[in-house]
Amino acid sequence: MRKLTSTLLYSLTGAAAIASLSSCKSNKQAEPQKPMNVIYIMSDDHSYQTISAYDQRYIHTPNIDRIGNEGVRFTNSFVANSISGPSRACMLTGKHSHANGFINNSTTFNGDQLTFPKVLQQNGYQTAMIGKWHLVSDPQGFDHWEILPGQGDYYNPTFIQMNGERTQEEGYATNIITDKAINWIENRDENKPFCMLLHHKAPHRTWMPDTCDLELFADKTFPLPENFYDNYEGRLAAQKQKMNIANDMEIVYDLKMADKENEIHQGMYEKWGRAMYNNMNPAQKAAWDAHYDPIIAKFKKDKLTGKALAEWKFQQYMRDYLRVITSVDRNIGRLLDYLEEQDLLDNTMIVYTSDQGFYMGEHGWFDKRFMYEESFRTPLLVRLPGGKKGDVAQLVQNIDYGPTILDLAGIEKPEEMHGESFLPLLKGEEAPEWRKSLYYHFYEYPAEHMVCRHFGVRTDRYKLIHFYNDIDSWELFDLQEDPSEMNNLYGKPGTEEITKELKAELKRLQEYYDDPIRKEFVIE
Description:
524 residues; alpha/beta; Alkaline Phosphatase, subunit A; Arylsulfatase, C-terminal domain; 3 domains; ten-stranded mixed sheet; four-stranded antiparallel sheet; 16 strands; disordered N terminus
């Protein structure tokens, strides 16, 4: 790894260190160009379906869209393990879960290992981490950090400071995190380049909107996904899950039906659903009551059951989720406006993504975890000054983020990182040797939502998944003919050759990334 000082980092992409060059038209020496700053914005559980740059059925997100409109929209962006903590560990280390050690949310991230912020810090960058961390251990490799403990709270959240002090702050988490980010940029050392990780809690469950957004979408009825009533035929693992809106989304905890009379009871998290309200101040409670009390009263009167109840849950879920997204989009607009006012847009790469995708009723689900498209796929919009504008269709994964940011800073990728730099794609360059397949591995079972352990491979057209541990089940999908992944083709006549090819590729990837599972389960 070569070390570069902040005064020698290269310009447009930071791809090489240069000295001042003499002008052919003048005896004056050209000013060395400044190294590129990085602002990496990541929300939690933000589905690509609810960003209008990807899908215009549900919501308009002009500020998130702006990042893509002024830069690149990745149309095939994926994660390596679709669950919050492990996904974040993959992003920080550039390695798959088995290599970074944080395989599920019951483990603790080993912060002593190499991460891209550490490498940047060692090479003259100021680094900051603000918002949701969710890796149990304290952040390392940052000059400044302020993080939410665990999942954090939407209202009046507590933050942990670098000195270990915990402070509760009045307001709404998305606004406060943005305030802290702007404040840090305002007070940074302007003689150094910076990399800031800005991680929103939103729109993680339980989708609690800011008071100013409570009435949004109140009169809108959202169309049910075509496979909302999926019966999971031919997909054994899907039959075992516990993330169905009709059966598993909780009335009090998820859907805010914490009535004052304490008559509504449903779900193991009911006490937490009622406790969330208690964290609000009087003004927040007044706004909350004005919105939810009439909904609660009508819900109690209607006594919904069966499909009527399932579809009411879906509508309530969609409205609250989209209200929370509205706040995220508004605050990204605040940040972009600030950067423009401070003349920082021309020297800052801005990334917007999510730690994974999310189900918006597809297959009847909420949450993530599965290798199916809605949770495996994630939004990725990148604004690189002077870079390409438009779409990028190559397969990228969150293990690529670290190598890309290091490449931007002119730093060679550490050998232990699995990911690859997609900086050439951001610059509009040809990448003929780019990967043709992706590897995925999910570990958290048995646990909440009961999604079985599985690993798999995805190409541009096909996906092969193997569920293991408590079951032994294969699934094969033709994403071109069956984008909703309803028809498991595994074992059906005519699929022998593609199955053989995909198994060979899956085996190759497990060997390439040195996943120990290949020794426990030999692919035949």
